[in-house]
């Protein structure tokens, strides 16, 4: 609720705290179901995640206790259509991730990897047996898993990947490596690999307990601290035929379809980060005094707060519009890429402004803004870097490809 009661010309000591979603009546743009889910997730995140997550952030540990608390909520059912889920939409998934990221972008990214990448791939490309065996478990968080596309030698140029499979009797033999794979040391992994017989990229469901699977958590990562990003090597792993995603035909009708879907929703994580920065900065500057006055009473601070607020609102409108267009099947690859690039770039700016406003305390994890500053770097980089997404959009508006 807006508690702004300053009348024009009046100066009061009581300072307003404004919900940036209410300020332009942005909640009115959401459906009753989206509002209800958002509220429920907000209540959970503020009670169970926000007060506890920074212990895990500082230790760079996976928050098992918090993830276990998610299970009874059946939260991940909201990311799937019936019969495996409650029914879903881009916006419903988005508001869940936005609320998660208000507490921690790493926690939101964990949810995104499990749902936008792993579960969406199983839902879109898996057959009934695979869905029954894996999706029902990954949906209920009995299994945790990841999605392996990127390799040490192939990041932006992912379609040139070299992890490979060779057909043998009853299955395939997998060799190669994957890098940066979130949840790569958990239970199950979607592996995108080149079939040496056809030279096409194909998809496989790999269980991490199978012989030949080796995952090392990448050390020294100073962003998205709770996410366990792994360097993985596959050495002669036998994958049974039944674990091949048969409906994948190549890179375009495979990982690229998944990325087209997830890139619509990932900018909602950036919205959550912007909102988190706004809330922490407003709270801080309206409660700390310097030179005998609240920090928020200085013009420089007010300009920063308004810039953060407006950037959040502009980004929200853009991301929501994209989500609605995607739901209607009208979002092009260029539109998706340009929104992802622009919003994640603006998140870096917002995070920097928030960090400045908190002074020395802006580097303490509980004050959020330093996490936002480093996490924004990954939002800007994963799911296609700012450059590549800009060039995808640039190709669409000029008709000229500039990155290959
Ligand atoms: C924390 C984290 C989590 C991740 N999680 C996953 C995951 O779960 N699964 C997964 O498969 N991948 C994951 N990734 C990988 C991510 O998608 C890649 O990091 C990203 O695609 C960029 O690849 P790269 O890091 O190899 O950078 P590079 O491709 O080496 O790019 C380096 C720089 O060069 C620029 N560049 C490259 N090519 C061009 C060009 N043609 N024109 C102009 N500029 C160019 C890039 O924009 C960038 O600035 C994750 C990455 C990170 C950091």
TrEMBL record:
Cofactor: FAD
PROSITE patterns: ACYL_COA_DH_2
UniProt xrefs under InterPro entries: ACX4-like, Acyl-CoA_DH_CS, Acyl-CoA_Oxase/DH_mid-dom, Acyl-CoA_Oxase/DH_mid-dom_sf, AcylCo_DH-like_C, AcylCo_DH/oxidase_C, AcylCoA_DH/ox_N, AcylCoA_DH/ox_N_sf
BP-aspect Gene Ontology terms: fatty acid beta-oxidation
Pfam families in the record: Acyl-CoA_dh_1, Acyl-CoA_dh_M, Acyl-CoA_dh_N
Record GO cellular component, one term: peroxisome
GO molecular function, one term: flavin adenine dinucleotide binding
Domain (Acyl-CoA dehydrogenase/oxidase C-terminal): residue spans on this chain: 258-396
Keywords assigned: FAD, Flavoprotein, Oxidoreductase
Domain Acyl-CoA dehydrogenase/oxidase N-terminal: 31-138
PANTHER family: ACYL-COA DEHYDROGENASE, ACYL-COENZYME A OXIDASE
Family assignment from sequence similarity: Belongs to the acyl-CoA dehydrogenase family.
Protein name: Acyl-CoA dehydrogenase
Lineage, uppermost ranks: Eukaryota, Sar, Alveolata, Ciliophora, Intramacronucleata
